[in-house]
Amino acid sequence: MAKKTSKAKSPKAVSKKITRYTYENIKEPRTPETGHTSLLPSDEQVVTLPMDNGWSKALKLGQIVENERPVVVDMDPVVDPVLMWAGKRNKRDVPVLPLQRNEVVSESRIAQIIERARNAAADESGVARQGHLYADLEKSLRESERTKRVEFYTHDEGWKNKLICGDSLAAIESLLHYEQLRGKVQMVFMDPPYAIKYDSNFQQRVDSIRNDEQDKADDIVTIKAFRDTWSLGVHSYLSHLQERLYLIRDLLTETGSVFVQISDDNVHLVRNVLDEVFGASNFISLIPFRKKTMPFGTTFLEQMADFLLWYGKRKVSDQGTANTKFYPFFLPQDVEGEFHYSWYEMPDGTRHRMTPEQLSNHALLPPKARVYRLKSLEPSGPMDSGKFTYAFEGKDYPPPKNGYGTPPAGMDRLSDLKRLQPEGNRLTFIMYADESLFTRLTAPWIDTVGADDKRYVVQTNSEIVKRCMLMTTDPGDLVLDPTCGAGTTAAVAEAWGRRWITCDTSRVAINVARRYLLSKVFKAYKTRSGTVSSGFEYRRVKRITLSSLANNLEPSEIELRDKPTEDANSIRVAGPMELMTLGRYSVEDWKGYVVREGEAGGPAKLENYIEVISRLYRKDAAIQGATGLVHAVFEASTEKIAISVGPLSGRVTAKQINDAVQDALSTGILELHVLGWAFESNVGEIKSQLEKRGKVKIHLIMIRPDTLAEGLKATQPEMLFSPLALPDVDITLIKKNGDQSVTASLRGVAIFDRKTRGTDYKSAGSGYVAAWYLDEDYDGDCFVDYQMFFDFKKAPNLKATLKMDVDPEEFKLQTTSQPFPIRGYKRIAVKVVDIYGNESTVVKDLV
Ligand SMILES: C[S@@+](CC[C@H](N)C(=O)[O-])C[C@H]1O[C@@H](n2cnc3c(N)ncnc32)[C@H](O)[C@@H]1O
Fold it and tell me: pLDDT above 90 covers what percent of the chain?
């Protein structure tokens, strides 16, 4: 059984107030550690994804080979129509890239951060550190919730929620392959680009939902994702979805659900693809939901809704019973203006029909009027025991076609309870509005609006995701959103105690989501038996029905799963999570951008990769191949340099630099240039250590992300590379009463200027830093967020989150950390995220 445990490490009394909840029986598989990363992901494993559950036979109607079974679901191509599109394939190779865990927000770190926020909040004289990650928390503790416990959810085996930067196809394959999550995901919420236009699908800056021309994304992965979607227009869009849906199907539990959000442009096509992948018989619902309240004004009839397509992995069991996990969702019933509720009863028992004015405005009803409606007494199917004529108030009422829904004794009881009322020639049942305060949710959802608390240009209203999640999952279940955006699904999951995984190709999206998740304060709910997976205590309401009254039964109760009992003594922050990256570039990119037409039969892909990058760097470089880590050598009258090229699908590691230095030295070359798309955070440290030995000079060179992107071709090769510029960080040692502590201050950050194509240092307060993170005790491998600072100035959500007026100045980025002790590794790492979502990390020794 899972347990509720208390963190009691700190001597401070306040630490007792930090509670963690545990999920049970959930094991977390380990991903491989990184060392040398192979240069091209093609060297890694590829799996073949079958994407044909019988549809290809539809092309050969009349020629079906007997006994040939569909591979995925029982789809009968003779009966079930299938959608064909250009480039539709029945299998494809998917690269199997391990997920690299490069940042962890661990349980103990959260506990420490909570404790700090509490201490800071308790310090009456202190200035609130609103620029800090747990600004909301600190402020809550300071202003109104100081006596509250601070909780977070976690589980026994160290499960951490996952925020993955990378393409969903490779991310899902990796979840299946390395993380062993096949059949483990209970619900998937997918909100792919609607296939409308590029700018509406991606956001360019972390701090603004506007997409300005000058900020156009230069991220090859974003561009690739866009191109993937569009190269054959809607045809490749359908292929994109089809591939991902086949993989998603493998991830889902047998009782799991998938929701795909889409607009009316392509809902008909996407439903066809879902029918193909999941089987039309597993279709559960098409839910139109209102996405805006103000029409923009279109020539014809304006569409105010988007759509959710809901499929179960297996809607019905072999025994014919409902198999997909489902809990009805109830909405408060507002009967004002509802034409069925057109009657009212006065305390003296007199009954009246409302006037049209009263119907739409209940304030016009007399005081103490009790609103009711008349309901048919006829059951939906024939009921022989109900086929009798009933005498009521001196008049005979013949039975309706299917009979009365209750036998004569039941009718007598209803009559005694004054629940019957004639309406013309039939008898009806009286249902009071105050006895049905909640009504079961149906489709369409006309009560929804556009995204709340907007942080991302194409954001879903969290109410939409919440309904889907609460209908189909329990606390502790795992949910996935392969199109993270602003992190709506992850935040909803965190709010409702579900475990989550989300991914996005866009670094901007990942950073918007990360900041939101890490800084949000959630409500805490009472659990049934101390564990999240035991479920919450929910508000229950009685349901008086015709049958409960007629049969003199206790009314049944409904559980309002969106109304758990709040724990008034607690507030909550996000539980442990990890930030992961996939190889950022796939073989497909490489083929597309480098192996150009006419080069068939040319050098092997790997050689080609090395050659292209090296020659872009130094036109006359002599290519050495991939046997060692010096991939090319460039010799001119004044210089001789060794060139080492970083992997296409990962970061340049310290080991690569070290080994490349050894290779260079062994051939007598004293200058090494390492070209990389991304670098491990400790490379600055390795560089200075190796250089300190006095022999070799090392240059770390960033390959600009748009180097290989068509349409963004830079004209001069030297503009494709820029020195790796690390954030400028100062360390201050503080000695007080014999104790030594440290603060780190962020002075500046290097920003790649898209116009000049150069790298400029900007000061920390210049508005270019979206966030910075400090690992107080960096182990040289995995970054751990001890302290985190955000530029909240432009975050519009803050006022809404805190539900109080805020002075925006208070929320300016804090550039100096809180003091912290020197710990075991005696070194820190500082990671800076700029407003374009670029990350850079610097490592500093403390002694
Ligand atoms: C419509 S938005 C999702 C918005 C999200 N529902 C929210 O509430 O913020 C679609 C997202 O999918 C991402 N995306 C597009 N192609 C992708 C791919 N191949 N893999 C992962 N994410 C992708 C985009 O970067 C974008 O953030």
Answer: 36
Q: What does the alpha-carbon distance between residue 330 and residue 32 come to, in Å, rounded to a whole number? A: 45
User: Which residue type occupies 319?
Assistant: Q
What is 766-831 written as a DSSP string? GS-EEEEEEETT--SSSEE-SEEEE-GGG-THHHHHHTS---GGGGSPP-BPPPEE--TT-EEEEE
> Residue with structure tokens 């805020």?
806
Report DSSP state, residue 462: H
Q: What length is written for the chain? A: 847
Which pLDDT tens digit goes with each residue over 141-168?
666 666 777 778 876 677 899 999 878 8
Nearest CA to ligand 1 atom 19: 167
3-state secondary structure of 596: coil
Q: 3-state DSSP helix/strand/coil percent for the chain, to nearest 5?
A: 25, 30, 45
Query: How far apart, in whole angstroms, are the C-alpha atoms of residue 693 and residue 665?
Result: 12
- C-alpha 806/C-alpha 431 separation (Å) is 47
How many angstroms does the Cα of residue 464 sit away from the middle of ligand 1?
16
SS3 514: helix
Closest to 524 (Cα-Cα) out of 18, 26, 156 = 18
**Residue range 300-321, pLDDT digits in tens:** 899 999 999 999 999 999 999 9
Only one residue has tokens 């969903």, namely 168
3 state SS for 710-736: CCCCCCCHHHHEEECCCCEEEEEEEEE
Measured over the CA atoms of residue 375, residue 376, residue 382 and residue 387, the dihedral's sign is positive
pTM of the model: 0.75
Cβ–ligand 1 distance for 486 under 6 Å, the answer yes
CB of 237 sitting under 6 A from ligand 1: no
Distance, in Å, from the CA atom of 533 to the CA atom of 3, rounded to the nearest integer, reads 10
| 8 A C-beta contact, residue 460 and residue 484 | no
Q: Does ligand 1 lie within 6 Å of residue 201's CB atom?
A: yes
Per-residue pLDDT, 131: 47
